[in-house]
């Protein structure tokens, strides 16, 4: 089941979109502006984002730009009242994959959502194997034997970064810039907290370990002969 985050400051429109998505079999998360959307993505994996543009705090274009600059590749569908060619151009340049103008036909929206998800699945090169474990970028899961662990977005990106470059030392600042780049309020302790959570959740996995390099940062090392 695909998870879709709907970011819209109008509660009635947000509810309408959610109801149609849920009735079509999708799992739906909600946010009322860009800042809340980023907080939701801290704790949940999402497969597609639907966002308005004109919202308080971080608007839809800023949100889209921030996500693309931070390496998020899931499809983004902008739904907005802004209808000029220049508005659409700005949306696509920010990194959106599709653009719809309000009022939106819900059936057409569902068709576009299905197409975006299908395209993302086809083009995604999403597996990383480390010993006997498999990291799946699309699902943001870690599979070890029969055990499958789903990780929040930031934890998964952090783990994937470390395991993609075994034995390479990453400073806290490097990790902050690459994974939390849009969040200027994050501090070094943020990385430490996420590393601690990863170690706890993956304590049963023996194929690798996340090593603290005193005074520098972190690295991932494969265990045994792997």
UniProtKB/TrEMBL annotation:
The keyword Cytoplasm applies. The modification 4-aspartylphosphate is found at residue 52. One of its GO terms (biological process) is regulation of DNA-templated transcription. InterPro entries: CheY-like_superfamily (IPR011006), OmpR/PhoB-type_DNA-bd (IPR001867), Sig_transdc_resp-reg_receiver (IPR001789), WalR-like (IPR039420), WH-like_DNA-bd_sf (IPR036388). Residues 125-222 form the OmpR/PhoB-type domain. One of its GO terms (molecular function) is transcription cis-regulatory region binding. GO terms for cellular component: cytosol; protein-DNA complex. Keywords: Activator, Cytoplasm, DNA-binding, Phosphoprotein, Transcription, Transcription regulation, Two-component regulatory system, Virulence. The keyword Amino-acid biosynthesis does not apply. It holds the Pfam family Trans_reg_C. Residues 125-222 bind DNA. PROSITE patterns: OMPR_PHOB (PS51755), RESPONSE_REGULATORY (PS50110). Residues 3-117 form the Response regulatory domain. Member of the two-component regulatory system HssS/HssR involved in intracellular heme homeostasis and tempering of staphylococcal virulence. Phosphorylated HssR binds to a direct repeat sequence within hrtAB promoter and activates the expression of hrtAB, an efflux pump, in response to extracellular heme, hemin, hemoglobin or blood. PANTHER family: HEME RESPONSE REGULATOR HSSR, REGULATOR OF RPOS. This is Heme response regulator HssR. It comes from Metabacillus indicus (Bacillus indicus).
């Amino acid at each position: 089941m695909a998870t879709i985050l709907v970011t819209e400051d109008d509660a009635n429109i947000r509810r309408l979109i959610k109801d149609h998505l849920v009735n079509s079999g999708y799992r739906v998360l909600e946010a009322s502006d860009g800042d809340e959307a980023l907080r939701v993505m801290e704790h949940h994996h999402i497969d597609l984002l639907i966002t308005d543009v004109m919202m308080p705090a971080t608007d839809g274009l800023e949100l889209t730009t921030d996500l693309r600059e931070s390496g998020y590749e899931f499809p983004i569908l902008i739904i907005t009242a802004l209808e000029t060619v220049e508005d659409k151009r700005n949306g696509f340049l920010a990194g959106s994959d599709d653009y719809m103008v309000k009022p939106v036909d819900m059936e057409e929206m569902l068709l576009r959502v299905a197409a975006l998800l299908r395209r993302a699945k086809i083009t995604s090169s999403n597996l990383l194997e480390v010993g006997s474990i498999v990291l799946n970028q699309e699902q943001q899961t870690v599979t070890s034997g029969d055990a499958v662990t789903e990780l929040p977005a930031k934890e998964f990106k952090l783990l994937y970064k470390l395991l993609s470059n075994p034995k390479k030392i990453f400073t806290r600042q490097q990790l902050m810039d690459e994974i939390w780049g849009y969040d200027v309020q994050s501090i070094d302790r943020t990385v430490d907290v996420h590393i601690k959570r990863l170690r706890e959740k993956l304590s049963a996995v023996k194929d690798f370990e996340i090593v603290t390099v005193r005074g520098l940062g972190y690295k991932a090392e494969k265990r045994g002969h792997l």
